[in-house]
Amino acid sequence: MIESRHDSVIVRRLSRGLIPLVQIFALYILFFGQYNPGGGFVGGVMLGTSLILGILVFGPTDPLTVVTKRIAETDGVGLMIFAAVGGLCLIGGGQFLNYAELEIPGLAAPSRRSLGIILTQIGVAVDIAVTAVSIVFSLSVMSGNGDSHG
Amino acid sequence: MVELVQGWLLRPNFIAFVTLFLLGLYITVTHHNLLKKLIGLYLVQTSVIFFLVTTSAKDGATVPILMPGKTAIQPDAYVNPLPHVLTLTAIVVQVATLGVSLALVAGIYRKYGSLDEDEVLKKLE
Amino acid sequence: MSDHLPILVFLIPFLAAICMPLVGLNNPGRCRPLALTALGGMFLLSVATLWRILSQGAIRYAFSGWAPPTGIEWVADEIAGIMVLVLSALAFLSLLHTRQDASAELAGRTVPYHAIVLTLVSGLTGMVYSGDLFNIFVFLEIAALSGYALVGVSGGRALVSAFRYLIMGSLGASFYLLGVSYFYAATGTLNMADLAQRVPDLLASKAVIGGLSFMFIGLGIKMALMPLHGWLPDAYTDAPDAVSPLLAALVTKVALLAWIRILYWVLAAGSYGMIIEIFGLLWVVGAFASVGGAVLALTQQDLKRRFAYGGLAHIGLILVGVGQGTQAGVTSGLFYLINDAVMQCLLFIMAGAIGSRYGVRTLDDLGRTRLPTPWIITGFVVAALSMIGLPPTGGFFGKWYIVLSAIENENYVAVVAVVLTTVLTMAYFIQVLEPMLRDGETGPRSPEIETPLQLRLSAGVLSVAIIGLGLWSDRIVQVLLHATSRLGL
Fold first, then answer.
1. Nearest-CA distance B111 → chain A (Å)
2. Is residue B69 in a domain?
């Protein structure tokens, strides 16, 4: 599936312009998920989709693909952000994920809850993007891949 | 009997849910291709999630997103947001199931060279 | 601080699972020590949690500070405390007993394997603690997806078994979610304590009965209740030997515990003099499953398959106890559940040990080779005694209490079923033990492979635990009776 980069120069040029646009839109949906439809799940899927487009179009030797493969191997970072936010709430004295107990000076309880939610959504988005990319890598036939990741 | 059917027609979400559920179950059980079984499974899960989200509907209410600028919030103007949250979680579970199942199917294809259930079972003997 | 113990017990394996890909990035050899440390830490914290529950009462943990029924809560009562203790100990021992270099079986997938084992354990922990119906669904699916991946880890045949397990398990989870949405549509809440106050008035409504039936089918598929058991024999037989003890001991039992919670704690079934008809269904299906599983076990040649069908029989036995509808019944069912988890773990560890070390996988292989391994044979004998139900092992006391509760309920058909299952279990175990213990056989003697320390440790601890469960059975049953006394039975 990912043998080499795409033949057509039009596709490559357009993708070079489209991928950053998709990523900016993904970040918009992620951060405005507080007030509009959206949030971490959809933002993460779009982020992952932009990376998958890059892998499919530019082939296995492109720097984008190599960096994405390294990122896909560090699988748990998004969940670590989520658990870290929850753990900080525990350290602050409240229950797990009780964002009102985050130790941030100068913010009242509702602002702390809002900040806690946006941080966890960032963690979720990173996790879903990495998961989508790693699924594509596992199912594809690429040189140096195959059964190594299972 | 007539009241029964009239009761069904008053609740179109039940009819849609039952149709999708039975269709998905039929596809899962009868088709031989492994990927088609997965599509049937996906239909079953989607129908259940659809039913869950329709329990939140209210007459003349809108999506559960607070409109800015209003001072008092009337609960009657918004649909019940809890089933929407449950639906989001169930969709994520469905996608994860799809991921694991596709990985298993890819492994079966690599090992046995076929996606047909009868051929794979024959090669297992 | 000790108020936060339930979430800490859950977080330790979960955080270890999350950090596993980073830790194992350059050096996969670091994964196993991390996993063992995490499970050991989880065991110690679960002991502390049980101590706290027994001395100060149940812990109710509300997430994010929102009080139930608006928020999600976890309820750590005595049953949950004991179950999590058993879970962490069994997971630790199952992970311990495998060889360091079982990489041939794992096909080089060490990092994902350890991460998925830890997510399985955390998912099961969440399911045991959960005080909310939808939370049970989420953790059920986390544990189930980890189970599907673990069954298929060794590739080949196991992939097809894992695929079958996945299809049936996902259908079961969909049925369970359907039942939950019916309950939500009828009452407007998902919290188990809140439902317990609203559902008993609505027991005649079709929504509640429909939801209950769907939940029963869904959880029945997950706990492999006959006739919904089709996925289990293949999945347990083809799973790698390192994984079978973990799956066999835990996954079906925790699903059964979730069903017991829904039946007694949510429905408050049987309490206040309201015995609803579902109990008749339960003990009949349980009796059928126990006798059917034992009969089918007699016909199997492959050892792991035989023990898998034996496990099916035990799920039936637990349901016979639970289906009596009395406090004695549910207590005896819960006690036998705990015993069964420990017994199945030991049995599958032993079956995996003789399979992978000596190549003995079927009854014919057992008849052909002599095994000079006192530890493994002792482990087999203790597990067999407990499965058959002979004193002083825990299995005897579990079956004894189930029979007592059935007699108390004047349910003599159930007593006959339990006795019949015991006789059949004895038959299929004698078929296994007889070639092992035979003396003066002229077959080839297997080379003396030194039983490694990890296997001795796992087998020894589990055997002592089985006998300990028998000797201290009345103390444990007292704790369980105290836990079920608030049900109004």
1. 11
2. no
Given A35, A41, A135, which is nearest B99 (Cβ)? A135
In a domain, B70, yes or no: no
**By residue range, what is the domain housing residue A32?**
9-145
Nearest to A99 among C15, C17, C64 (CB): C64
Q: Are C240 and C169 in contact (CB under 8 A)?
A: no
pLDDT digits (tens, 9 = 90+) for C57-111: 888 988 888 888 888 899 999 999 999 999 999 999 998 887 765 656 676 788 8
Q: Of the candidates C94, C23, C381, C445, which has an alpha carbon nearest to the alpha carbon of residue C245?
A: C94
Is the pLDDT at A49 greater than 90, yes or no? yes
SS3 B125: coil
Q: Mark yes or no for CB contact C177/B90 under 8 Å.
A: yes
A66 belongs to a structural domain: yes
**Average pLDDT of span C451-461:** 84
A143 reaches B (C-beta below 8 A) = no
Q: Which of C19, C108, C153 has the CB atom closest to A76's CB atom? A: C19
Residue A4 resides in a domain: no
Number of domains in chain B: 1
pLDDT tens figures, C195-210? 888 887 787 788 888 8
pLDDT tens by residue, C331-352: 999 999 999 999 999 999 988 8
CATH label of the domain that carries residue B25: 1.10.287.3510
Q: Are the beta carbons of A35 and B92 separated by less than 8 Å?
A: no
Which residues 35-64 of chain A have a CB within 8 Å of chain B? 35-37, 41
* DSSP character string of C208-265: HHHHHHHHHHHHHHHTT-TTS-TTHHHHHHHS-TTTHHHHHHHHHHHHHHHHHIIIII
Q: How far apart are CA A45 and CA A130, in angstroms?
A: 9
**Contact check, Cβ <8 Å, A139/B103:** yes
pLDDT of residue C440: 54
Which pLDDT belongs to residue A148?
A: 39
